[in-house]
């Protein structure tokens, strides 16, 4: 199930929305989980696979506060689960639990719980494994952050740089500009990366990630110009529906 994408990083992909979970493995077998997903059974089998390899979960990171990126399971140990201050969710977030129950029933939200905010302006995750730089990339969701593993040449992008989803914007008035700035920030990071893991979709090499950055800029250009984008990712009905909704929202703001 786990696919090795660099010396110390493995990825597993759920067939639903091609949702990825990333596992960063330190030399002593301590693992950092990034956005573990997606079904309760997926999380149980992920823990089983880690145990089978002699690894143990030491910490986790949630890239942003959408329900499919904050998940946890009874099978996984009680470890620090960090998010940026803007992305941390409370264990009492009923709206998030309701969205999860609607989209993919089965998660027990009393088990999923909440995430812990990192101190403001944290630049690296406070774990003893390999260096993991927190790259602020707002625009998709509050506090959205990507994780750069410079020693591995890996970027875990969160819900950006996808080959199956166009840029999906949060409700903030500044979201388009924030998203563009985040793409520019990621372009600098991608220049030194061999592997880019999107939250949904296929793992990319640096060249493919750069193509996705260009495609995302083109999509945002068309979206803000009120032009129907020629983008293959819109062939998927779910993504098309999200696009239509955000195009309508931006159109209403312009009027
Ligand atoms: Zn998301």
UniProtKB/TrEMBL annotation:
Pfam families: Lactamase_B (PF00753). Signal peptide: none annotated. Residues 19-200 form the Metallo-beta-lactamase domain. It comes from the Bacteria. Gene3D superfamilies: Ribonuclease Z/Hydroxyacylglutathione hydrolase-like. SUPFAM superfamilies: Metallo-hydrolase/oxidoreductase. This is MBL fold metallo-hydrolase. It comes from Oceanitalea stevensii.
